[in-house]
Structure formats: C-alpha cells, structure tokens
C-alpha cells in the first residue's frame, strides 16, 4: 500500500509529488519540506513581549505607556485587557481589544504580556 502524500498547503491540491526530500505542487508550483512547513507555522503564531503564544480570549497587560494616534489619551503601563481577539496584522496591530477607559483599539503584541 502506497503512502499518501500531503495536500498542498497553499492551494490544497491533492496532486502533489515528492522531489527528493521536498514536496512539489504542480498546480501552483509551491515547493516545501516538512521542516519549512513547521517553520512557517511557527512564524504565524502571535507571541507577546515575553515569547508566550497568545490565543483568542486571553487576558493581557500593557507593558509600556502607549499613545493613541488621533487622540490625547494614553493607555498606561499595567493596564489589564480582558478577552483579546487576534487578527491579521494591520500596520503591525495584531490584537483587537476593548481597553478600559479608552474603548475599542488595535494593539501590537510586542507591547503586551500574557496574564
């Protein structure tokens, strides 16, 4: 019985083939190895300032004072934010959340730590 090859991670095509240690997709011309796929998945994880992986619904704390563009208010260091939502980075802002006293804002994960 032949081993089944993985579908293409880019286009999900089932017509992949092996080329030495790599896999190749003839539909979109994507080439990958198991190691490169793991590295891409690791890079896609959103981590806090200490390197902890963040998930939707986590509670975080702001690690430095953050000025808000277009407003005179500041998010103070130590502010606790509950129930974050991870989003695709928009100008580096990969967290959507509601900050007490400020409202709905986008934060960069590099300025928070997981509680």
TrEMBL record:
Protein YjdM N-terminal domain location is: 4-33
Q: Which residues form the Protein YjdM C-terminal domain?
A: 46-114
UniProt-listed Gene3D superfamilies: 2.20.25.10, SH3 Domains
One Pfam family, short name please? Answer: YjdM
- InterPro entries per record: YjdM, YjdM_C, YjdM_N
Membership in a protein family:
Belongs to the YjdM family.
* Record-linked PANTHER family: PROTEIN YJDM (PTHR30305:SF3), PROTEIN YJDM-RELATED (PTHR30305)
NCBIfam families associated with the record: phnA
Identify this protein by name: Alkylphosphonate utilization operon protein PhnA
Species of origin: Staphylococcus massiliensis S46
């Amino acid at each position: 019985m032949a081993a089944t090859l993985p579908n293409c991670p880019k286009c999900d095509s089932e017509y992949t083939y092996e080329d030495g240690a790599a896999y190749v997709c003839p539909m979109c011309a994507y080439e990958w190895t198991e190691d490169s796929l793991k590295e891409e998945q690791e890079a896609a994880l959103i981590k806090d300032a200490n390197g902890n992986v963040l998930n939707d619904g986590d509670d975080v704390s702001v690690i430095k004072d953050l000025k808000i563009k277009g407003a005179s208010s500041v998010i103070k260091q130590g502010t606790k934010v509950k129930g974050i939502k991870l989003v695709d980075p928009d100008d580096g802002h990969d967290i959507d959340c509601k900050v007490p006293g400020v409202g709905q804002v986008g934060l960069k994960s590099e300025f928070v730590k997981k509680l």
